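Weekly puzzle thread! Below is a chain. First person to post its structure in token form gets bragging rights.
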Amino acid sequence: MTPRAPDGVVARNRRALHQYFVLERVEAGIELTGTEVRSIRLGGSQIAEAYVRIEAGQAYLLGAHVRPYEQGNRLNHEPLRRRRLLLHRREIDHLQGVARQPGHTLIALDLHLSRNRVKCELGVCRGKRQVDKREAIAAREASREIDRAMRRHVIGG
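Winning reply:
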């Protein structure tokens, strides 16, 4: 088994935080088959391209890749199938209303284990412009410089 993060995260969408502003976060369960759960526990999932679409009153996770389980048989799962998200009706209605606003989308931010269940953290996101991305990079670099200066000052002082 591969080591997991202390918070149980098995897959994280790092690119989403660079390309989008996350306005709201929601945790949802995922309807999975047994071989999918085993594969996810072994670190066999990627959600870099994953997003959520609401169809006929149900929320579905699309674009998430779950590697076929190596010990699975002919009943193994399809790697890129759409997976139903388990949310309350009010949550689905709320997310659908927010996603209809121009410029907003629903993105999968991470897959994690919560009390031995696989959960997906969704983000209501708005796309960043190139200027916003540059500002975020500049702020991150400024923070690193401040940390370096503080360490030099503490060590040298």
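Puzzle host: Confirmed. Bonus trivia for everyone else. Residues 130-156 form the longest helix (27 residues).
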